[in-house]
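Margin note: ligand = NDP.
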Amino acid sequence: MSVIKSVIDKVKRMDPDQKEFHQAVIEVMETLEPTAERHPEFVKNGIYERIVEPERAVQFRVPWVDDKSQVQVNRGFRVQFNNAIGPFKGGIRFHPSVNLGIIKFLGFEQIFKNSLTTLAMGGGKGGSDFDPKGKSDGEIMRFCQSFMRELFRHIGPETDVPAGDIGVGGREIGYMYGYYKKIRNEHTGVLTGKGLEYGGSLIRPEATGYGTVYFASEMLATRGLDLKGKRVAVSGAGNVAQYAIEKVNQMGGTVISVCDSGATIIDEAGIDNDKCCYLMELKNVRRGRVSEYADQYKTVCVESKNVWDVIREQGIKVDVALPCATQNEIDGANAEALVKNGCFCVAEGANMPSSPEAVRVFQANNVLYGPGKAANAGGVATSGLEMSQNSSKLSWTRDEVDSRLLLIMKGIHKSCLDAAEAYGKKGDYVTGANIAGFVKVAKAMMAYGIV
Ligand code: NDP
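Resulting structure:
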């Protein structure tokens, strides 16, 4: 049996309930087969067995008191997956679906994504099954403080540097950082995504969405195309989706959709800059639902369905798809419908938003398909730039950070294509991203001996 197959079998056997983690491991491992042939030293030194096992995974109790003075208890996680090339680095997710398997899938993906950025960052991820929806600011603050009351002992600017993810934006980072600072008595770059007043970087909020669109645009350029005049479907309505919309508008495309977990909006006239500002205020300040957008602009609103279901059911024409909500939001049937409706480019703002069947459909139909670990790496790359600014006590201008982000995304795109070609899979961004991300980490692991 090949080492790859035996690693996959072992992962499934050891943690049979961690379906998302299995999915992420299988997706990466199956493309790494040629690296095992080319690098027998990786096999001999157990690199494949070691890379799927986190350095450590911490699970903890998060007790807090709600506005009715009731005690609530949530579960917190931090998975420190791999620090071969730099401190552990990866976001924190607050969502009721969070469990150890989801955090492990995200932490595992993060290893390769962070490696692709060329910055010195290892892979990690954390979160809680806490649901921020409908909670008051006071409740969010008390929860964040309780979460940090345990997390603080596991992180540090040279050890592990968390950031935001689903349900964790500027407000939550502020509360967590404030509490870390209080109990450690140090003002240091231990979290990224901070406010500008206390060590944050310009462009960090925009970076994941902007980076995804830069990556899409690089893919399109390989076929002599660009975003001008293209119909773009975006899913989600949060941080990544909002700035993806802003950047598509700047590049001349028309975004026709957004969704949250309550509804999908189809706006045939396009979500222009004014509407995008309305969406940002609705989601980030008023913390409302996208259905209010439909009331405001008299657009189509389909309750309880995501963007990809609506596109399939209504046969909506789309050129480019930017899934920016959550994992496995596009299934095989939705992918087939996208292809049928004319979609030729998919860049993933979210992590693993396409199911394995959907990926197969895109690849079989010659769709330009940019997997999340490459296409959405702009967020963590800019977090890396925030870390550099924090350690040098400097802050760079908006243009400086944006131009570095663009260069990094171009670099990632090129690394994917180069690695794919070097391993006989020309144009395959999945193989390219996985191999380019993996080989650097594997070589660093080799240098350390068996640790
Ligand atoms: P946010 O919490 O800001 O936004 C998530 C959005 O997706 C919300 O509008 C949410 O709706 C919607 N959503 C979540 N689950 C579903 C669902 N099942 N069906 C429909 N809509 C859903 O998170 P981010 O924008 O930060 O993250 C989005 C994705 O991007 C995630 O996969 C994340 O891991 C990935 N990512 C984020 C990075 C970042 O820098 N923030 C970096 C790299 C990747 P609702 O409001 O109803 O919950």
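The longest strand covers residues 71-82.
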